[in-house]
Design a protein that fits this description.
The complex is a heterodimer of chains A (112) and B (113). Chain A has no helices and eleven strands. By secondary structure, chain A is mostly beta strands. The radius of gyration of chain A is 13 Å and the shape is globular. Chain B contains no helices and eleven strands. The chains are: A mainly beta (112), B mainly beta (113).
Chain lengths: 112, 113
């Protein structure tokens, strides 16, 4: 079974704090993704990575950065958290030649 | 523009009452169409991939079908444990978007005993 884990299920941070969300997959997948999910807007892609140290912007990269130093780990960084970044954050991974993405359990982030 | 529209937004069924969820899409070329199930507060769980018009996939009470413009998720004799949000997504075949999935906003299904 594919397993994608995220470092926290729930997180509460203050405006201006630097926030790290971590994602780990155990299936040697080349591709990893970060989405945010908001009511009425669906899942929107923030960043993805197709290899170690490689990254590409998704649809809403503003205010976020990412890091992929090891194949199994993909981190999302909020440099200075703002209230409009309160959301559910979902990590996903996908093998190189496959189509299906497999999601982690999500991190519910609240910025106050 | 590549996009996905799901309907209805919400659906309430009685246990045993079969129905269908719709996913309409526009894309210049389709690499794949995906159905996911999402329970409250959890990540989406992969259900099916469909690749070409006419294809069908089944899993327990669920059957997914695909045409050139839409996909249906048929739920036969649903049970309360089928209650969830069902998400549809496409992966474009061409262009810069081919690495990502484009999601609809989902259908919230509630099955009452």
């Amino acid at each position: 079974d594919v397993k994608v884990t995220q470092s926290s299920r729930y997180l509460v941070k203050r405006t201006g704090e630097k926030v790290f969300l971590e994602c780990v997959q155990d299936m040697d997948h080349e591709n990893m993704f970060w989405y945010r999910q908001d009511p009425g807007l669906g899942l929107r892609l923030i960043y993805f990575s197709y290899d170690v140290k490689m990254k590409e912007k998704g649809d809403i990269p503003e205010g976020y950065s990412v890091s992929r130093e090891k194949k199994e780990r993909f981190s999302l960084i909020l440099e200075s958290a703002s209230t409009n970044q309160t959301s559910m954050y979902l990590c996903a991974s996908r093998p190189g030649l496959a189509n299906e993405q497999y999601f982690g359990p999500g991190t519910r982030l609240t910025v106050t | 523009e590549d996009q996905v529209t799901q309907s209805p937004e919400a659906l309430r069924l009685q246990e045993g009452e079969s129905s269908s969820l719709n996913c309409s899409y526009t894309v210049s070329g389709l690499r794949g169409l995906f159905w996911y199930r999402q329970d409250p507060g959890k990540g989406p769980e992969f259900l099916f991939t469909l690749y070409s018009a006419g294809e069908e996939k089944e899993k327990e009470r669920l059957k997914a079908t695909l045409t050139k413009k839409e996909s249906f998720l048929h739920i036969t004799a649903p049970k309360p444990e089928d209650s969830a949000t069902y998400l549809c997504a496409i992966r474009p075949l061409f262009g810069g978007a081919t690495n990502k999935l484009i999601f609809g906003t989902g259908t919230l299904l509630a099955v009452q005993p």
